[in-house]
Amino acid sequence: MVNKTDETTEQRIMAAAKKIFLAKGLDGARMQDIADEAGINKAMLHYYFRSKDKLFETIFEEVATHFLPRITEIFASGSTLFEKIEAFCEAYIEQVKQMPYLPVFVLHEATRQPHVLVKKMFGNKKPPVHLFAQQVEKEIQLGIIKPIQPLQLFLNMLSMCVFPFMAKPMFEHAAGISKKQFDAMIEERKKMVPQFIIAAIKK
């Protein structure tokens, strides 16, 4: 039986870790920072989570558990293809906006232990990308969109949403923009990315 105090402490640690990871990134965050933010000592933090990596993995699994059903809902819905592109881009950008260090973690884990990452993200289920692909093929046949390989279209959507977060430090430095300006640009991309993609494939 889970002790309510333990559950509350763990939730407090998770909330503190998300705040510290957001402020300092995965590499910059320290366990002491997280312990201080949670209002506990470092020994207690290590009692619940033996390492920063383990703590982040737990957060990642929680995010995946909540986010992936939303993607499934979008792809399985009766919406038009264009509506699905708009919904996917908005949902994906909003999720990563809240946890911008996620793409770096995913890329690192995908290189280091891809099978473990896939298991963490999807468990025994797969997002219904095939439904999206079928709809793309159907709308090509109906003459609604130009011929395009469905997976190429999906990769375009994914990469255009995620790349700004991956390149954020370089982009901020090269373009000389502030964090506030970057955040405003990311907010604009919720509309701009689907508009760009739809314009590229629409007949």
UniProtKB/TrEMBL annotation:
Pfam families in UniProt: TetR_N
Keyword Hydrolase: no
Keywords: DNA-binding
HTH tetR-type domain: residues covered: 7-67
GO molecular function: DNA binding
InterPro entries to which the protein is assigned, alphabetical: Homeodomain-like_sf, HTH-type_TetR-like_transc_reg, HTH_TetR, Tet_transcr_reg_TetR-rel_C_sf
SUPFAM superfamilies in the cross-refs: Homeodomain-like, Tetracyclin repressor-like, C-terminal domain
Domain of life: Bacteria
Keyword Cell cycle found: no
DNA-binding region: 30-49
PANTHER family given in the database record: HTH-TYPE TRANSCRIPTIONAL REPRESSOR SCO4008 (PTHR30328:SF54), TRANSCRIPTIONAL REPRESSOR (PTHR30328)
Annotated protein name in UniProt: TetR/AcrR family transcriptional regulator
The species this protein was found in: Panacibacter microcysteis
